[in-house]
Amino acid sequence: MTGYVPVNKNLTQEITVYDIPSTWSQLDMLNHLKAWGQVVAIKFKSQQKYVTVTVSIELNQEATRLWNDGAWTAPLGGLPVRWFPANWDLKQKKKNGNDSRQRLRESCFSKHCNFIPGKSCSLYSCTHWM
């Protein structure tokens, strides 16, 4: 618990965040999450090279837009991380991630990136999501 009491409970989300580098300290992660809004509570789980964070957060306007648009990734500390509702099971996360990757490939191919047919499109080559 951070001691923050949400002002607008409609903007508060329970989110699981993946792909956070384990080299970041817990304070670094908390500071980076402030770019998304006000952290209410946070839980960390280390997994070798990465950390998974479950966070209760009152999202700011930009993060709320990304969340409501169904983005499966968000920028955190300059890196792309995956985020999902904390109550989703593994099957839901995999399905959403696969659907979102397909939409990303289609979007890259159609207009946003220097996409080269035959090469994979990824968040590292596609910057329109930021």
Structural summary, described in words:
It is a single chain. The chain has 130 residues and is α+β, with helices and mostly antiparallel strands. It folds into two domains: 9-89, RRM (RNA recognition motif) domain (Alpha-Beta Plaits, 2-Layer Sandwich), CATH 3.30.70; 98-130, no CATH class. It is built from three helices and five strands. The chain has helices at residues 26-33, 61-68, 90-112, and strands at residues 12-21, 37-47, 50-59, 73-76, 79-85. A five-stranded antiparallel β-sheet has the order 2-3-1-5-4. The two termini are 29 Å apart.
Distinctive features:
32% strand; 130 residues; Alpha-Beta Plaits; 3 helices; 30% helix; five-stranded antiparallel sheet; single chain; 2 domains; alpha+beta
CATH topology of the largest domain: Alpha-Beta Plaits
What's the overall geometry?
globular
What is the string of helix and strand elements?
A: EHEEHEEH
- Determine the CATH superfamily of the largest domain: RRM (RNA recognition motif) domain
Helical fraction: 25-40%
In total, how many domains does the architecture comprise?
Answer: 2
- The radius of gyration is 15 Å
- Global structural class: alpha+beta
Number of alpha- plus pi-helical segments:
3
Strand content: 25-35%
Summarize model confidence as the mean pLDDT: 78
CATH class of the largest domain: Alpha Beta
Strand order of the largest sheet: 2-3-1-5-4
**Termini separation:** 29 Å
What's the total count of β strands?
5
Biggest sheet details: 5 strands, antiparallel
